[in-house]
Specification:
alpha+beta; Aminopeptidase; seven-stranded mixed β-sheet; 7 strands; binds coenzyme A
Length: about 170
């Protein structure tokens, strides 16, 4: 994949149909923790308007400026403000082309610039989600270990793997 075809930008309301393509696809959402199940186009529009656009760092992953997924960085507060969580997803027909790894690398650079208190980006991924673990490894994240029986997801208690990337590990430093 030519990385110049991949970009991150704020969502637009006109992305709604592209958004629904992945956001309502069980293959994509099966590993997205706390993900809302969308049942209508209006719900998706409201979600883009009320959650994605005002979010400090929720970006549409675009291929040739067409929205094909999302990536978000969510900083913690108070004594935890030194860290932020990263999450992402891509529509299935674009899987396996290296797009997520490119998007994560782009988000890393901007995440540390945008959030001055954040020195640690972390990602928690389901133990069975091998593609996501590979994405994080390709982007240079460090695998810290397993979070055993960490949370409920779709009625089952899941084991997660936690990864981190520190600001001191960016090429900018
Ligand atoms: C995870 C996800 C974002 C990856 O997107 P993508 O654009 O296909 O990712 P990339 O092409 O950059 O990399 C995927 C890597 O995983 C590997 N992979 C895919 N399935 C795999 C599996 N079952 N076992 C091991 N490796 C696997 C691919 O071979 C590739 O590695 P490579 O480049 O070394 O060959 C995409 O599958 C997705 O949207 N999944 C659902 C949402 C999700 O899980 N989000 C993350 C929540 S933590």
């Amino acid at each position: 994949m030519d990385s110049s075809r991949v970009s991150l930008r704020t969502f637009k309301l006109s992305d709604v149909d592209d958004f629904l393509e992945w956001a309502s696809d069980d293959q994509v959402t099966q590993f997205l923790l706390k993900w809302k199940v969308f049942t209508s186009r209006d719900e998706a529009l409201n979600f883009i308007k009320d959650i994605c656009i005002p979010h400090p760092c929720c970006r549409s992953i675009c291929l040739d400026d067409r929205s094909i997924g999302f990536i978000s960085i969510t900083p913690s507060f108070g004594d935890d403000k030194c860290r932020a969580d990263i999450g992402y997803a891509i529509a299935t027909k674009y899987w396996g082309q290296g797009i997520a790894a490119i998007a994560v690398k782009m988000a890393l650079a901007s995440g540390f610039k945008d959030f001055h208190d954040v020195v640690r980006l972390q990602a928690k991924t389901d133990l069975e989600n091998k593609a996501s673990q590979r994405v994080l490894e390709k982007a240079g994240f460090f695998k810290e270990g397993m979070l055993r029986k960490y949370c409920f997801h779709r009625g089952q208690i899941r084991d997660l793997v936690i990864y981190s990337f520190l600001v001191t590990e960016t090429v900018l430093n």
